[in-house]
Design brief:
It is built from five helices and eight strands. It is an alpha+beta fold and 157 residues long. A hairpin with a 4-residue loop joins strand 4 and strand 5.
Length: 157
């Protein structure tokens, strides 16, 4: 498959609308809660049925619930308790875009998801953008000594 290289908005939209379903899953990412960020060492993750999310935007802001369904074709998710009534009175799930929610608890973490989390965490560590407790940093004494040496060199000039 060829890579999208156009900068034109109409072509970008066309690529999004015609994107195959196996690639569309990347569009279904949601940010993680601060606790999960610290624990896992990553900022976002594709949503999955069974995850518990908090809605951050829109009429349902603040509502928390479990993801019941992930709609790849429409790029929307359905959340437990987020329903509207049809004209005949039957409740239907209100579709919400995954970028408008925050994952607060992961559902089932299988081998594939563990692999994704580990790969993303390692990538973030390699560029130095991890804020986890697992990261090994210099002791405060070493950091201070290196800054004092630099400041003494500048004073000598």
């Amino acid at each position: 498959m060829t890579r999208v290289t156009s900068l034109q908005p109409r072509k970008q939209r066309r690529f999004l609308y015609n994107m195959p379903l196996h690639l569309r899953h990347k569009l279904l990412t949601a940010p993680l809660s601060p606790e999960l960020r610290k624990e896992l060492g990553i900022r976002n993750l594709p949503v999955k049925k069974g995850d518990v999310v908090r809605i951050m935007r829109g009429d349902w802001k603040g509502h928390e619930g479990k993801i019941v369904e992930v709609d790849l074709r429409r790029v929307r998710i359905h959340i437990e308790g987020v329903t509207i009534k049809r004209a005949d009175g039957t409740p239907v799930y209100y579709p919400i875009h995954p970028s408008k929610v925050m994952i607060i608890k992961l559902g089932e973490v299988d081998k594939v998801r563990k692999k994704i989390i580990e790969r993303r965490r390692m990538a973030r560590e390699s560029i130095g953008k991890v804020e986890t407790s697992r990261r090994i940093s210099k002791p405060p004494e070493q950091e201070e000594s290196s800054t004092t040496e630099i400041s003494e060199e500048k004073k000598g000039r």
